[in-house]
Structures are given as C-alpha cells and as structure tokens.
C-alpha cells in the first residue's frame, strides 16, 4: 500500500513484493488500462513509468544483501488478488522494458507472498496465474510461513510448463590463464 506519484498517471498505490527479486504490483485499472485488452505497448509504457517512479520515491532494503535491493520491474494485474479458483492475469515488465512470456516465476512467488501477507489466501491454496501476452499458465501456493531477516515471509511453490530454447557448450583450454575467471578491483 505504497502511494507513488507516476508522471502522466497521477497517484497510484503499489505493493512491493520479493520473490527472488523485487517487483512493484498494481492493477492496470489504476493506470486507466485493462491488463487483458489494452495494447501491450500501452501496458509496457505504463509499467515502466511505475518502475521509474518507485525507484525515485522509495528505497528498497534486502535483509541479507543491499546489492539485491533494487526494483527489477512492475507487474500489472487484473486486480483479482483474493483467492479464487479462476485464473488471475498479469503482465510482467522487467529490466529494460522486456515482457515476460510467462506469468513470471519470481513474480508469481512475490505475488503469492503479498496475497498471503494481506490475508487474501491461506497456506496451501493454489492460485493460477495467466500471462496477458501469451496466455501461458503458472500455479503457485504458499506452503510454509517463515521469517527472512526481520520480515515475515512464506515459502512458495510455483509450477508451470517450460520448453528448451537452446543449449550451450563451454570449453576451457588448459593453457588459458583466465580459465577460472577474474575479478575487477
């Protein structure tokens, strides 16, 4: 429930959740959009504006590593956060205005944690998440309450279907003086 002023959109209320990385969450409706029917470019532009506004107006903290205390992106939702057997739809806009083809594993993890924290779902209630761009589905459920540093947290299970898109082979030559890598000072 963090109030953020987003240029060209005004004040919106976002939730910040962590599921391996930090995301801002809000319903697309707050931005005058519909996550299921608005043009993807409009959703991307709005989500990117939210990401930039959050970065400027709110400092994130990670309980173990400040290197992880950054906002990776914004996930616009259909606003259907309370438990339901029906899928809830979202679009994840991350990094440099990239759009995930899936509902996003780390995003589903963070969204489940938020829903649990807000009392909208209980442990072991499975939610289905749909990508607004491709229609692909993931499921997620909070399976155990715990603590992470000083924060209340949950362990989340996420599942979905994935496909190989490529393979790589790395070769290390014995005479390579940098074969074990290097560090910048």
TrEMBL record:
It catalyses: trans-3-hydroxy-L-proline = 1-pyrroline-2-carboxylate + H2O. Its EC number is 4.2.1.77. This is trans-L-3-hydroxyproline dehydratase. The keyword Magnesium does not apply. It is an enzyme of class 4 (lyase). InterPro entries: Pro_racemase_fam. The gene is L3hypdh. Homodimer. Belongs to the proline racemase family. One of its GO terms (molecular function) is trans-L-3-hydroxyproline dehydratase activity. Keywords: Lyase. Gene3D superfamilies: Diaminopimelate Epimerase, Chain A, domain 1. It comes from the Eukaryota. The keyword Cell membrane does not apply. The lineage of its organism: Eukaryota, Metazoa, Chordata, Craniata, Vertebrata.
């Amino acid at each position: 429930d963090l109030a953020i002023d987003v240029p060209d959109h005004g004040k919106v209320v976002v939730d910040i959740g962590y599921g391996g990385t930090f995301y801002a969450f809000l319903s697309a409706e707050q931005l005058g959009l519909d996550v299921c029917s608005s043009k993807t470019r409009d959703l991307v532009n709005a989500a990117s504006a939210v990401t930039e506004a959050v970065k400027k107006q709110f400092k994130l903290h990670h309980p173990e590593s400040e290197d992880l205390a950054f906002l990776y992106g914004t996930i616009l939702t259909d606003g259907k956060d309370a438990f339901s057997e029906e899928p809830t739809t979202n679009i994840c806009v991350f990094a440099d205005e990239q759009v995930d083809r899936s509902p996003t594993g780390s995003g589903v993890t963070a969204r489940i944690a938020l829903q649990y924290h807000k009392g909208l779902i209980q442990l072991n209630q499975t939610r289905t998440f749909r990508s607004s761009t491709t229609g692909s589905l993931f499921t997620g459920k909070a399976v155990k309450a715990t603590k992470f540093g000083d924060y209340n947290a949950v362990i989340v299970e996420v599942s979905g279907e994935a496909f190989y898109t490529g393979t790589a082979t790395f070769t290390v030559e014995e005479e390579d003086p940098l074969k074990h890598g290097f560090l910048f000072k």
